[in-house]
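Working notes for the structural subgroup meeting. M.R. asked for a predicted model of this chain before we commit to crystallization trials. I am recording the input and output together here so anyone reviewing the notebook later can reproduce the run.

Input as submitted:
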Amino acid sequence: MEPEEPEKVVSEEEAQLAQSEAELQALEERLDKIKGPVSKGDKQFARGLALVASFGFVLAGCLVGGLMIGDYLVAQSGHKIFRLVGLFLGLFTALFAGVKLMKPLMRSDN
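Returned structure, recorded in token form:
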């Protein structure tokens, strides 16, 4: 009877090992479901958000720069029309920069 007892112990250990492996596999599957792959839509959303943010900064920077140039010209010449000229100069520069920002997005197939 002694030879049967070690086999019984080994089989109990194997059963516990198999059970723990099954639990580990189930846990890994749950983690994979929770984590999930990064979808293409998430990357597209992030790129769009970055484009909108950069376009906003470019627009604001160009308009402020144009107004500063206009104010400088008003201070130098005394003609207030230069403030409006600076504003339009900043606006056209912002539109040109916005088109340059959008060109790579329009060409990409992603």
